[in-house]
């Protein structure tokens, strides 16, 4: 059993959301934490001695997912308002809206080079977007029910998705086809992600299970049933040796994948835990729950410096052809149940600072904001060119210029504003029409393929009868 010094420790809770926290994500340096919530807001928590929180307002409905770009210059969010937004996480609150989905968007994720976004939606589609041009590149249709999650592989060549149709699918981004599918008849997956080397995927099941699949051999490697309710989210430690899981049973579990066993059970949330994520270096992790709390933890249980491991994975994502050679090597593929030697960590008893005062919250609107009490050190200004191409779409949110330190905001005539608004509405209609046409074309192709197959069978039968 690990000693107390090696156990995970709750650093502090964050309270600022007014509803369940649906997503958590660290920036590259782990100096900032972004969270999304059913309260329709994004929040960015600056993890410094003088902690501040920034609330980003823009989505019309609940925000379901959030992620920083690899360089930390952009923030992506998905919402039940059917949109994906790209934000510059600075005091201007600039954002651009990506429209194309026809139902709630469940997840959004950057590719590891930051050039692309993948989103998953209740419209049963997966969409891939260009970050630079902020436009839809293509859609993937094969799921027959709501798509709950979609993630890029580390090298960007594959996408893993999971759906309420009880399948986990692997897609090739180059030829835009589904190359593999794993079925789970016991329940559907709420979340899916690749391990750091890109050879395995982990799925979080509604049937209380966590499964690891080898995507090269199409084989189930490990099967854990350590939770007492559905598993909502998982996150790999950057070493690939550990997996943390978040469950509706109110706990987080840490699994040692090399040993194939549960090593920690973490308490702290009052109710279901909906999201969890390690920082890029693995030294911290954060969790979000239905109790509207965000808990920030120190990892502790593996103090090894993984900089070299991370460099190795980064090299691998750029030059290696699949299949990758690196892998975790599980000792057995059988079911792993909860074992009594796992360590229970309960911050209620172990941590004295659970009542730490919450940081001041500064609200930043996507239309405009003032910055009288915001230091430029807290939220830096990324290059303005990052979202320059979004200017065509900014009439969606009104003027995007920030009022900062007395700067005046210039307006446009009402007639021009109305005309631009009408153009944007027409573009949105066209986008939706193209999306529907794409889906119908895919269905037509499937029907034609089925007809050809039936025709070939009939011809073969005719020849046999002759």
Describe this structure as you would to a colleague.
The protein has 466 residues and is mainly β. Helix content is 15%, strand content 38%. The strands form seven sheets. The chain has a five-stranded mixed sheet, with no helix packed on it. Strands 18-19-20-21-29 form a five-stranded mixed sheet, with no helix packed on it. The N and C termini lie far apart (75 Å).
- Tally of helical segments: 3
Through-space gap between termini: 75 Å
Low-confidence runs (pLDDT<50, min 5 residues)? 1-5, 304-310, 312-334, 349-355, 367-378, 380-386, 388-410
- Give the total of beta strands: 31
Proportion of helical residues: 10-25%
Strand content: 35-45%
Shape summary: globular
Order of strands side by side in the largest beta sheet?
2-3-4-5-31
Structural class: mainly beta
Main sheet properties: 5 strands, mixed
Give the averaged pLDDT, no decimals. 80
Radius of gyration: 23 Å
């Amino acid at each position: 059993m690990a000693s107390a010094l090696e156990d995970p420790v709750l650093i502090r809770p964050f309270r600022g959301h007014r509803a369940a926290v649906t997503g958590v994500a660290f920036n590259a340096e782990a100096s900032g934490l972004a969270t999304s919530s059913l309260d329709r807001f994004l929040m960015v928590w600056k993890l410094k001695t003088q902690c501040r929180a920034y609330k980003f307002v823009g989505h019309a409905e609940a925000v379901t997912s959030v992620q920083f770009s690899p360089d930390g210059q952009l923030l992506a969010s998905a919402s039940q308002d059917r949109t994906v937004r790209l934000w510059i996480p600075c005091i201007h609150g600039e954002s651009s809206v990506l429209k194309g989905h026809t139902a709630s968007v469940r997840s959004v994720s950057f590719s590891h080079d930051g050039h692309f976004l993948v989103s998953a939606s209740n419209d049963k589609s997966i969409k891939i977007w260009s970050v630079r041009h902020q436009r839809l590149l293509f859609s993937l249709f094969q799921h027959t029910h709501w798509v709950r999650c979609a993630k890029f592989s580390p090298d960007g060549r594959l996408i893993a998705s999971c759906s309420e149709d009880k399948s986990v699918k692997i897609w090739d981004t180059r030829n835009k086809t589904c190359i593999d599918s794993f079925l789970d008849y016991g329940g559907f997956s709420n979340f899916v992600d690749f391990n750091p080397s890109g050879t395995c995927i982990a799925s979080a099941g509604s049937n209380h299970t966590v499964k690891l699949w080898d995507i090269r051999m199409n084989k189930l490697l490990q099967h854990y049933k350590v939770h007492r309710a559905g598993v909502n989210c998982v996150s790999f430690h950057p070493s690939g040796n550990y997996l943390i899981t978040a469950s509706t049973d109110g706990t987080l579990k840490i699994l040692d994948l090399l040993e194939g066993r549960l090593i920690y059970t973490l308490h702290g949330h009052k109710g279901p835990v909906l999201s969890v994520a390690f920082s890029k270096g693995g030294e911290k992790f954060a969790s979000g729950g239905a109790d509207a709390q965000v808990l920030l933890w120190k990892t502790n249980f593996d103090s090894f410096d993984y900089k070299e491991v991370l460099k190795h994975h980064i090299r691998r994502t750029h030059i290696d052809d699949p299949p990758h050679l690196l892998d975790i090597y599980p000792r057995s593929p059988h079911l792993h149940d909860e074992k009594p030697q796992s360590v229970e960590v309960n911050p209620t008893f172990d941590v004295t600072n659970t009542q730490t005062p919450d940081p001041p919250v500064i609200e930043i609107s996507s239309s405009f904001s003032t910055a009288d009490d915001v230091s430029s050190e807290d939220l830096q200004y990324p290059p303005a060119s990052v979202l320059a191409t979004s200017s065509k779409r900014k009439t969606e949110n009104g003027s995007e210029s920030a009022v900062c330190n007395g700067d005046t905001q210039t307006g446009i005539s009402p007639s021009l504003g109305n005309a631009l608004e009408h153009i944007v509405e027409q573009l949105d209609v066209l986008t939706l029409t193209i999306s529907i046409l794409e889906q119908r074309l895919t269905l037509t192709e499937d029907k034609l393929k089925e007809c050809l197959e039936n025709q070939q069978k009939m011809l073969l039968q005719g020849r046999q009868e002759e």
